[in-house]
Amino acid sequence: MTDRQLMVGDPAPDFALLAARRNVVSETSLGQLLEGNRGVVLSTYELDFTGG
To answer: For 20, what's the count of Cα atoms within 13 Å in the CB-facing half-sphere?
Structure first.
C-alpha cells in the first residue's frame, strides 16, 4: 500500500469484501466482482444502536 491519495479517474484498489448474490453471502474481492461486469454498486451501512 502506498501513501499516494487517489485522484478522480484512478482505478479503485482491490480489496476483500462480503458479497451477496441470490441470497448467498460469500467473501470475494472487488476485482472478482468487476470481471465481466460493466459496473458494480457498493453500499455500506454503519452499525448503529438507535431504536426505530
So the answer is: 5
Helix boundaries (H) for the chain: 30-34
- Fill in the DSSP letter of residue 38: S
Give 27's strand partners. 18
Angle in degrees, CA 34, 36, 42, rounded to 5: 25
pLDDT score, position 2: 61
DSSP assignment letter at 43: -
- For 1-52, the pLDDT digits (tens) are 567 787 888 887 888 888 777 888 989 888 887 888 777 777 777 777 777 6
Sheet strands (E) in the chain: 16-21, 24-29
